[in-house]
């Protein structure tokens, strides 16, 4: 019985409550701003990913120029063309993925 409990304990999922950046080539200032904006929007609109993506996009358009695109969700793949130094791919709260990129 003790062996079964030890086996189950080793299989626990790790849920990240901090942003886990998988890929970015943004400069530090833009990256920090984009991460903070993404986390705030996803926490505020946790039940509506479409609305969270819209809020992130509108704010990025205002702060860093137009043509930003945002995807927020779980279990998706992507391949995009983007302007250099304008992509951010991160995970938040476990398996919630956020992708921001600029393409004009």
TrEMBL record:
Keyword Transferase among UniProt keywords: no
CDD domains for the chain: DLC-like_DNAL4
Subcellular location: Cytoplasm, Cytoskeleton, Cilium axoneme
GO cellular-component term (any): dynein complex
Pfam families on file: Dynein_light
GO biological process assignments: microtubule-based process
Domain of life: Eukaryota
Keywords: Cell projection, Cilium, Cytoplasm, Cytoskeleton, Dynein, Microtubule, Motor protein
SUPFAM superfamilies noted in UniProt: DLC
Record's keyword annotation contains DNA damage: no
Family: Belongs to the dynein light chain family.
Record function comment: Force generating protein of respiratory cilia. Produces force towards the minus ends of microtubules. Dynein has ATPase activity.
Assembly, per entry: Consists of at least two heavy chains and a number of intermediate and light chains.
PANTHER family: DYNEIN AXONEMAL LIGHT CHAIN 4, DYNEIN LIGHT CHAIN
Name of protein: Dynein light chain
Name of the gene encoding the protein in the UniProt record: LOC117137226
